[in-house]
Every structure is written in structure tokens, then in C-alpha cells.
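seq/struct pair 1
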Amino acid sequence: QVQLVESGGGLVQPGGSLRLSCATSGSTFSIGAMAWYRQAPGKQRELVARITTTGSTNYADSVKGRFTISRDNAKNTVYLQMTSLKPEDTAVYYCHNSQGYWGQGTQVTVSS
């Protein structure tokens, strides 16, 4: 059974940082691309960042230069380092794997 479990969300002030983690089990993590998506209230889910098995990355324009996606194949975990956070980054952040599975999401709230 494939499981993706996100953690690391929370409340942070504008300009702050958070690091999200997504631990996976039951899947061939090391041979698939991984991605982070987010969904804000009343908006569609959108791709935030993606990383391939070889470490190639791509980002949404809105987070370029502020967010960094990385992976640790030995730990079957993907990370999202978020810096210079803005109120518009507030959303539920989801982990997604190449097999089409989703995590349960973790809430990120950026507010003073």
C-alpha cells in the first residue's frame, strides 16, 4: 500500500521560512519523479515544484528563487524548503508521486 505523509506545515510570519517533508512508503520512490502541489481556498490545485530521479527540478514562476525542492532516495523522502514566504503562499500543500498517489496535505499559513 502506497502512503505519502506530509509534515512541517504551520503558521509563519511573512518573510519567514518553513521546510516541508513528504515521507513515502510502499512505492518505488527512487525511480519516480516527485512533486509538491498546493491548493488555496477557492482556487484550483497548482504545481509548485517537481524533481526527477536525477535531480532535475522545475518550479512555478511564483516560487522561483524562494522555494527549493530536494529528495533523499535513501530515506524515500522529498522536501520543500520555503523561504521569503508571502501571504499568497497560504495553502494546503500536497505531495504527489509519479504513480499518481497523493498525501493528505499539510497546511501552510503565512500571516502576521
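seq/struct pair 2
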Amino acid sequence: QVQPVESGGGLVQAGGSLTLSCSVSGGTFVGDDMVAWYRQAPGKEREVIATITWDDGSRNYTGSMRGRFTIYRNYHGSRTFLHINGMRFGSAAIYYCSVRRGSVVCWGQGARVTVSS
């Protein structure tokens, strides 16, 4: 079972940017792993932001997220990243990384992002 681990959360000023990272605890991303970033704001449902296929790096974004979010990977470092521009108060959430390997989807514990004025 693959265990994603998020890092890079914290406090960021409104208008600023932040990059979150996702790696695999004790292992690496492989082959056709599908990595996704989600966020869950207080009182709201978890929503998908973007996905990336590990082997070829192909990316997809949820329509409303396109533009302010960038998903990418460091292939040799076995990490995926989510870069967020133009932080808003509405961006405050717990950001989750998930990995689908075969038919199994595993979730990280999440990285909390707080936005200050």
C-alpha cells in the first residue's frame, strides 16, 4: 500500500503563493500512478483540484481551479507539487494528496493552509 505524505502547508498572506509537496512514505511513485490534489475547506466537501499521471506527466484541472493552481512533478525526486498563486481567504483549507495505484486509492493526512490578511 502506498502512503502519500504532504508537506509545505502553513500560514500565507493573502495574495501570496505557496507550493505543497507530496511524496510516498518509504517508497516512490511508479508507472501509471495517478496523483491528485484535493482541498477541503471548513464546512465544505472535499473537492479535486488537479491530477497528474506519473509516467507521462499529463495533467488535468478542475475547470474552476484552472489558472491559479499548477500541478507538476519532479520525476527523479519522486515528488509531486501543487503551486498555488493569488492566495485568497477562500483558499484556506486542508490540502490532500491522493495516489491511485491500480484499483487502490490512498490518501495522505493533509496539509493545512491558513491565509492571513
